[in-house]
Specification:
Elements: E1 5-14, E2 22-25, E3 40-45, H1 52-66, H2 75-78, E4 85-96, E5 99-112, E6 115-129, E7 132-133, E8 137-143, H3 154-161, H4 166-181, H5 189-197, H6 204-220, E9 221-224, H7 226-233, E10 237-245, E11 250-258, E12 263-265, H8 267-287, E13 291-302, E14 308-318, E15 324-325, H9 331-348, E16 353-356, H10 365-378, E17 382-386, H11 392-395, E18 401-404, E19 412-413, H12 424-434, H13 447-462, E20 467-473, H14 476-489, E21 495-501, H15 515-530, E22 537-542, E23 555-557, E24 564-565, E25 570-572, H16 575-593
Helix pairs in contact: 1-6, 4-5, 7-9, 8-9
């Protein structure tokens, strides 16, 4: 019996973590042949915090949704803080004998009073067969707010129902159950039972598509996120991603083996562990020369339930040396063991899609390059990974590498103007320093600022932070004169003076309504310049000339270039201008005099 092969073509995410909009594209995305075309590798590279892990997290949530599980409420934390919803669009190709389906699955998550929910989901499909291709049309569109509609389009709903009106009632119930359970309507258990068991001839094509996607998510999609590395780093558990297809054993998941001490298994899990270890050992000795894993059997021991169990421990064996507990190996070796079964599956099965976050963590650079080179040349499945190690850039084709950018609205790009003779690693480093790509791929850091920040942080470890009195004066000469005196005579172990010039009150862009904002800007200027915290400031002293602005009826017209101040009058060549200045500045000074706080001080 022909088993369809499902391959990911692309993934678009919107408003997830720091990704406003971004699409990753698999190397064979534009290939519409009926042959899936062998291995596909996509590595995603970029600086820290630029959206790489968002891809892996999205696949993890997508897998849960496509197997009908309850929506993970953690998704709410992943939605961009400025948005109330997020979007995911996964594009697939399904190879089914002489038919190629191009399928898109689109989801909108929304925040609500009761947590996160699926606001809308739909699937569209184009069919390639006998030399022709249909339009890519939506065949199932669920919208949570359309309570009177089961799903659209109506034509497909009628094809599914056929002459059996009971199916319509079942579909309505399934919709309510999906909403109550907070799971996908399209892939929820109740809906699947209806789709898969009540197949009309007209709707059979779409059932084949839904069934293939469900089986893919359940059995062929592996997502290895940073939680695996976290368990390894703490030296508590060895999480082994696995899939076993045997007559007596058939399952997929993570086998978490305790590292700190022997553990007890029932007979079924013991047999499963043996099968996983046998598969791993088939390859492990070639990657880590001469190494294999043994299961040390301490004999029978009752389980907590009272049933018969076996106490075992994973051991590392090299050549004729004595076995040692696997926990004594390096994090890098344990990381390889944890992903090796999944890598074997992806190597030998065209429908496997393996996603690994930080593939390079703990793995020797040269070995990483060799593994990727072997996979790209000989494997059958798909591998998507994030990494910081640039060795892969020397081993993979340009279509197999995408880079995260500084622009959250166009988060992932292929590097342009790359020739076959170019070294992608060198081009990447050059693009970081010189640019030249359609988007900047590195948010520039200043080594001098970093160095200064470390020095400041180091000083803070050995001295108490001084409180800061900020003094605002009008001009540079005032800053030099007054500032020097204040710092010399009044600074102490507890208090230091920060002096800044800026004639705020005489600036005609300053008003009584925005003067506190302008002072706040001066506070931020000082805070950023010297690395102060907000709670370091204890007071602001604003020293300014009154310029006679509170006097009345003493401005005289005179042929002078600059304003002249006398004990009993002011002379100027433009009386109205000075009167306007006085009114403006007096309002600002009155505002400041009556105000007790500026910014947070």
């Amino acid at each position: 019996m022909w088993k369809s092969i499902v391959r990911l073509s692309s993934l678009t995410i919107k408003n997830i973590k720091n990704v406003k909009n971004g699409t990753i594209i698999m190397p064979h995305e534009y290939n519409r042949s009926f042959d899936c075309g062998g291995a596909e590798i996509l590595g995603v590279y970029g600086q820290n915090g630029s959206g790489k892990t968002a891809i892996v997290d999205t696949f993890s949530f997508l897998q849960q949704i496509m197997i009908g599980e309850e929506l993970d409420q953690r998704i709410a934390d992943y939605i961009d803080t400025d948005s109330e919803s997020a979007e995911v669009n996964a594009e697939f190709k399904i190879f089914n004998q002489n038919i190629l389906y191009e399928v898109g699955y689109y989801i909108i998550f929304s925040k609500g009073d009761n947590g996160i929910c699926i606001d809308r989901e739909y699937i569209n499909c184009a069919i390639n067969q006998d030399g022709s291709r249909t339009n890519k049309n939506v065949f199932m569109d669920y919208r949570r707010n359309e309570t009177e509609t089961i799903f659209k389009p109506q034509k497909r709903l009628e094809e599914l129902i056929g002459k059996n009106k009971d199916i319509k009632t079942d579909l309505i119930v399934a919709k309510k159950m999906a909403e109550k359970s907070n799971c996908s309507y399209i892939f929820g258990e109740n809906s699947r039972d209806i789709f898969f068991n009540n197949v009309s001839d007209k709707f059979k094509i779409y059932v084949d598509v839904l069934s293939a996607l469900f089986r893919f998510a359940l059995g062929d999609l592996f997502v290895i996120d940073n939680s695996h590395s976290g368990m390894i780093s703490t030296n508590v558990l060895l999480p082994m991603s696995f899939r076993v297809d045997k007559e007596k054993i058939g399952m997929k998941g993570d086998f978490a083996a305790p590292l700190m001490e022997p553990f007890v298994l029932d007979s079924e899990r013991k047999e499963l562990l043996k099968e996983i270890v046998n598969q791993i050992n088939t390859v492990l000795y070639t990657i880590i020369p001469g190494m294999r894993i043994d299961i040390k059997d301490y004999g029978k021991q009752a389980l907590d339930s009272g049933e018969e169990g076996w106490k075992v421990e994973l051991m590392s064996v090299r050549g004729n040396k004595k076995p040692i507990p696997i926990r004594m190996e390096s994090d890098g070796i344990i990381k390889i063991i944890s992903i090796l079964n999944a890598l074997i599956q992806a190597f030998s099965n065209a429908s496997i899609c393996l996603i690994i976050d930080e593939l390079d963590a703990g793995i020797f650079e040269y070995l990483l390059g060799e593994l990727l080179d072997i996979f790209s040349k000989s494997a059958k499945g798909q591998l998507i990974f994030t990494s910081h190690n640039l060795r892969a850039l020397e081993m993979l084709d340009k279509e197999s590498i995408m880079f995260s950018t500084v622009n959250p609205n166009n988060r992932y790009i292929h590097m342009k103007n790359v020739k076959d003779s170019n070294n992608l690693r060198s081009m990447y480093i050059r693009s970081i320093t010189l640019g030249g790509q359609e988007e900047p791929i590195y948010e520039e850091t200043d080594s001098l600022k970093i160095s200064r920040a470390f020095r400041k942080a180091g000083k803070l470890l050995h001295e108490e932070r001084k409180k800061v009195v900020m003094v605002i004066v009008e001009g540079p000469s005032d800053e030099n004169a007054i500032g020097g005196i204040l710092k010399e005579h009044f600074s102490s172990k507890e208090v230091q003076f920060a002096v800044v010039h800026g004639d705020i009150t005489s600036d005609f862009t300053t008003t009584k309504d925005n003067v506190l904002i302008k002072i706040g800007d001066k506070v931020e200027e000082i805070r950023n310049k010297y690395g102060y915290r907000s709670d370091d400031f204890v007071s602001i002293i604003h020293i300014t000339d009154t310029d006679g602005v509170f006097t009345k009826d003493c401005i005289r017209q005179s042929d002078v270039k600059n304003i002249q101040y006398y004990e009993d009058h002011i002379e100027t060549d433009d009386v109205s201008k000075v009167e306007k200045r006085n009114k403006h500045k007096s309002e600002i000074l009155s505002k400041l005099y009556s105000t007790g706080r500026a910014k947070f001080i």
